Amino acid sequence: MGPSRAENWLAKHVRLLEKCLVAHEILIDWWSEKESPSEAAQAYFRNTSKVRLAPGKRGLGDRYFVTEHITTPFTVIVDDDKSFSCDLMHGLLLAAQRFPNKIITVKKNNRHVYLCKDTQLLWYYRPERYRIEPDGAIGLTSAALVPTSLMKAYRTMIPPSVIALINRELNCEDMLFNWLAARLNPDNESSVFLSYSGGGIFDGRMGGKALCKRKNSVQRRSACLNYIRAMFPYWPIPRVPSYHVVVEDKK
């Protein structure tokens, strides 16, 4: 994220989240090795008690390692091109209290997984259903509420070699997080999807390294699925959720 995008993100999203009572703290995990936060951004961090930079440097594969700096039982994850309204965050938190061990996100972040019966390979992964029922489903963690305990489990249960591959490929970490959630939930479902009548999820300008801007992005995602399945052959494919949460905006 360059300085102009960073300052725009701070102005449009972080300041709004800072006023949200259900947000205990805002922790910014700055990944860039080449760029530091601008002077304006650093001044902003110094003058607020609710927003801080996470110490150290992480990559995509170890993004969930930031949990060592988190003290709350649930964590809302938003990428630098995403954000939630406070009302939607409250709805996610209500759903998390009912499903405390699952990834909670909005319905538009639902992705489907299909098993090719003839080859036993997994096929990623459309947001819309095909004529056949999907064999699994994952919730994108680019904007989601997750149990902090699941982030801690990721750190202890995922081998360093897998983390290194994800850091190199800049892909797969959200799928792996779902696989882990399915492994740890008795019903083998990783996610719960929420419909909120008030909208409340904001999509900003993507950076140049966004996966969807790469060639063969869907094929690369399918390769992720099959890599994870090969590395963790006894972990279940995340099942299609049995529950769907609807939150009505009464305003």
Automatic annotation (TrEMBL):
Entries under Pfam families matching the protein: Glyco_transf_64
Glycosyl transferase domain: residues covered: 7-237
First-listed, main subcellular location of the protein, grouped into a coarse class: membrane
Keyword Transferase: yes
Source organism superkingdom: Eukaryota
GO molecular function, one term: glycosyltransferase activity
PANTHER family cross-referenced by the UniProt entry: ACETYLGLUCOSAMINYLTRANSFERASE (PTHR48261:SF2)
Name listed for the protein in its UniProt record: Glycosyl transferase 64 domain-containing protein
Annotated organism of origin: Vitrella brassicaformis (strain CCMP3155)
Cellular compartments annotated: Membrane
Keywords annotated in UniProt: Disulfide bond, Membrane, Transferase
Cited InterPro entries: Exostosin, GT64_dom, Nucleotide-diphossugar_trans
GO terms under cellular component: membrane
